[in-house]
Structures are given as C-alpha cells and as structure tokens.
Amino acid sequence: YFTLKDEKSQISCVMFKGQNQKLKFDLEDGLSVTGLGRISLYEPRGTYQLIFEYIEPKGIGALQIAFEQLKNRLASEGLFEEKYKRPLPFFPQKISLITSPTGAVVHDILKIIKRRFPNLFIEIVPVKVQGKDAEKEIINALNLLNIRNNTDIIVLARGGGSLEDLNVFNSEYVARAIFSAKIPVVSAIGHETDFTISDFVADLRAPTPSAAAEVVVPNKDELKRRVVDIISKLKSNIWQYIERQQYILQQVSKNLVNPKRKVQDLRLKTDEVSSRLTNVILNRMDQKREQFKVYVKMLSINKPISYITKLNNQLEIIIGKLYSSNRIYLNQKRSLLRENTVRLYALNPTEILKRGFSITSTIPQGRLVKSANSVSNGQDLEIMLAKGKLLVRVFQKRYRQAK
Q: The pTM is what?
C-alpha cells in the first residue's frame, strides 16, 4: 500500500503480492514512477484507489535503481571494506574458473594463462552466466569450491553485455556467496566500463576476463629472470660476508698472544722475582752478620762466653731456616710455573685443532654450533680446521644417543 501524488493531487495505491514480487527494485519515498493499473472503488470508505499491475522507475531502469539500492545497502553492512579483501597468492598452484564453457571468455583466459605459465593446473567449473538458472548455478559452484577447499584462486568471469545480461552478477545472493568464500575471488565481468555488485564484494576486480588471466598468473620468463637476479645478489652478499669475517678473523688473530711467548714472559718474571728475593735474603743476612759482629765486639769486652755461644747457635739455626724457606718457595713457584705452562698448552685453540678437532659456526650469523638440533637441513655452515676452513651445507642430521 502506498500513495502517489504530484503538486496538485494524490491517490491511494495498491500492488498485491503476486505483482510486487516481480519488482526488481524497492519502492522508496520520493521515487518517480511510471506504471500500469486500474481504478477501483473502496466501498467501505467511498474512496477510489489505483491497483497497479506493473510499475517501474521513471527516467531510469528498474535494474539500475535495484543495482544502486543493493550497492548502498551492502556497503552500509561493510561487505565492500578493504579489511575483508584477501590477498592473492603470488604463485598459485591451481586456479578454478567459474564461467560458461562455450563462450569466448574461457578460451581467452586459457590462452593467456598457458602463454604465461604453461604447467599451471586450471579447473573449469561450467555454469550459466545469464538466464533463469544462472544465479543458482553460480552460488552452487562457489559453495562447492569452498567445501572442497583445494584451489588457490577462484575467477568468476563473463564477457560483456547489457545491464540485463549482467544482472545475475548484481544478485544479493551471489554477492553474499562471494563474501563468504574462504578462497580469494577475482571478479572479471564484462568490459572495463561495466561494474557489478560482484566486482565490489570480490577480493579483486579485473577490468576484463583477459586482464584477470594476467593478474592471477605470474609470467614464467619474468620469474626466471627474478630468480637469477636474486641468486646473483645472494652470492654477492655471501662473498661480502665471508670477506668481512676473514678481515675480522685477521684482526682478532693479531691480538691473540702466542702461548709460548706467554710462558716465556712468565718464566722471565719468575726468574726476576726469584733473583730479587735471593738478593733481599742475602742483604738481610749481611746486615745480621754486621750486627752480630758489633754485638760480639761489644760483648767481648765483658767476656760473656756462654751468652755469645748461645747467640751463635741461634744465628746458625736462623740462617738454616732462611735457606730452607727460600729453597721451598722457589721450588713451589717453579712447580706452579710448570703446571700453568701445561694448562696454557692444553687450552690453546690451535693445539686443539691440530689434534683433529674443528669449530663449526652458522652462516651468516657466526653462531657456534654445539648440537645438531641448532641447525636445519640445507643450512650453510663454516668449519674451521687447523689449516684452512670448509664451507658446507647440512644434508642430514644424526643424533648420538646419550649413554
């Protein structure tokens, strides 16, 4: 039930359910329309009303206004927002093409894809792209691919046509099926100037079906060139890294102290300390002798023979202890020096490498490898030997069982 009015008059109108369901748009306030109907008298009130059999927007087609109404409604629900757009895989292994199997579109797409990447697997899902059953078949195809979930990209394609020809791609149900898809969907409907609801809700719109084939498949020759460039850059970076590490190793080697030289320095210092200690002891003994002589001279005046004898005995004992202590101290220092020398030789990395051991580190991090768990198959490693280095790649990992 609605009311039609112009600047001067108005009349009540009715459009019953059977005719109303055939409308391709929603009646809205302020909409100018043209229609076909008949005048009827509403007896309870004694008023006339207009019963419509058909109605369409004035000046613009019903399909166009239905398109605008649905577009605005879905946009308000957020179905066109970028945050819901899924990125296309760079290198798809399988593409599913939903289109008519007999049109020129399928041949154009297959031709371009085979030219760009001949070995790519393409699945054709045949559907009607206009007419009575087109909407149902397209929705069923989308749902089937989502249930199987064994393809990387879905391409929904159709050639150009009128707004009525493309109307199935302006269906709300098709739009919601595209939005619900778990797999990225590319919409390639009509010509570059044609826009459908499917274009807005899909993850990517291609201006034409041929353009869709260009977008979803990388060029094989271009990929080869890119791989060659990447390998070249990788080799260059690896050699630069190796040169930097060699330079760092040379600088570190310059700062390392030779263990033999270290032992010699310690030996010289020990000899120097021993000599100084001996001189100190001898000087102390000379001082004591001089003091003793003075005491003897002073005591000789009083002839204290027994006292002198006692002091002389004590002096001999003290001298003996001093010699013994000095000998023990020097022996301890020499023993300690020998032990330190042995330890230094044992800890010398060069000596360890000479015994057949090696040092393994990762490339390019330079991290020491202590366990097979810390590396991966295919990883590059550097092995330092007593003479030279080895650059190796992990082929297989084996684990030694703990005893």
A: 0.48
